[in-house]
Design a protein that fits this description.
Helices cover 22% and strands 25% of the residues. The strands form three sheets. Strands 7-8-9-10-11-18-19 form a seven-stranded mixed sheet, with helices on one face. Bound molecules: zinc ion (ZN) (2 copies). The site of one zinc ion has 5 residues, from loops. One zinc ion binds next to loops.
């Protein structure tokens, strides 16, 4: 490469932009942060200033009870940073408000994907393929075995289990930000308009999605209803509630879990999941490799997951790549 791109530095605690003294998704509190999306491992609280999409800032305000230092940047808008760096937020298709961040300094272009997926999702705009010199890509599901099936198939399994067990309920474990709302919106798209019951911990985030225009249909709180009300219904709860005492109030629950990790049988067994649903908000192996081909960067920097296999794929395909060792990111938000 002709340019050295020293204005962008991967550090253990995030991507650092020295001329702007600014971080992307830092895993500890800093003066100035750009945040790709609201999942806790990307959106820490306590920064001096936080630039993010208005949706992400709303999610952070809900989580951290403050919006001090919030700098809203809508999709397609550009924020001018010190040191001649422009930051443009582009849809990433991961969860409500999720963005890729395009950095441009004197025509040198770097994209940080944050978490992303390529498939249509009724809760957020679709990932936008944008040319750049360096693509900093996530690799949560960066192994060829991770191929996510069409979501319609998984939603179909869920509805079938419901139809087969009219006196029971199907309890779906799903993360409170993104996965829960996507599963509900996909159930509605599949024509399931019956009331869906929520664990209390899901309520506020579902309401926030509705405030941002995502239609979720009739949602009821489990706490307000009797066992008999919930027969033949879908109940959504955080994964941590799947096997705890709370679920005893439900009528003969069939336990399901919506996660990309449900591809791995052992993970389903660990959580006593009877109905594993392979539903992920991350790119699968094909989406990761196709995105590198379509964006066609001079170099790919791979982070946030299983870097080695994607690195090897890049080498086999004569593409320059390196693995970054960032710390403090987890796979909770699958
Ligand atoms: Zn995420
Ligand atoms: Zn993540």
């Amino acid at each position: 490469m002709s340019a050295d791109f020293s204005w962008i530095q991967p550090e253990p605690h995030g991507i650092y932009i020295p001329p702007a003294d600014c971080w992307i998704d830092p895993s500890r509190a800093v003066d100035k942060a750009l945040v790709t999306h609201g999942h806790a491992d990307h959106a820490r609280g306590g920064h001096g200033k936080t630039a993010a999409t208005p949706e992400t800032l709303a999610i952070m305000k809900l989580r951290y009870a403050t919006d001090a230092g919030a700098v809203p940047v809508s999709y397609g808008e550009t924020l001018r940073l010190p040191g001649g760096v422009d930051a443009t937020f582009l849809p990433a298709g991961h969860v409500l408000g999720s963005a890729q961040i395009l950095l441009d300094r004197a025509g040198e272009r770097v994209i940080v994907t944050g978490d992303y997926k390529r498939r249509a999702d009724p809760t957020c705009p679709q990932f936008q393929v944008t040319p750049c010199d360096i693509l900093i890509t996530e690799a949560t599901f960066g192994l060829p075995l991770f191929i996510h099936p069409p979501i319609e198939d998984e939603i179909g399994k869920l509805l079938q289990a419901l139809a087969d067990n009219p006196d029971a309920c199907v309890l779906v474990g799903a993360y409170a930000l993104g996965k829960a709302q996507r599963v509900i919106a996909e159930l509605r798209a599949a024509g399931h308009w019956a009331p869906i019951y929520l664990h209390g911990a899901m309520e506020r985030m579902c309401r926030l999605y509705e405030e941002w225009g995502v239609e979720l249909g009739e949602l009821r709180l489990v706490a307000d209803h009797s066992k008999d009300d919930m027969r033949g219904a879908i109940v959504v709860c955080p994964p941590s509630a799947l096997n705890d005492r709370w679920s005893r109030r439900l009528p003969d629950p069939i336990t399901a879990m919506a996660s990309g990790w449900m591809r791995v049988r052992q993970r389903a067994r660990q959580r006593n999941v009877e109905l594993p649903l392979i539903i992920s908000d991350h790119a699968d192996w094909h989406e990761l490799t196709r995105t590198i081909e379509e964006v066609n960067p001079q170099e790919s920097w791979i982070t946030h997951g299983r870097e080695e296999a994607l690195l090897r794929w890049c080498q086999l395909n004569q593409r320059r790549a390196r693995a970054l060792a960032l710390v403090g990111y987890d796979d909770e938000d699958d």
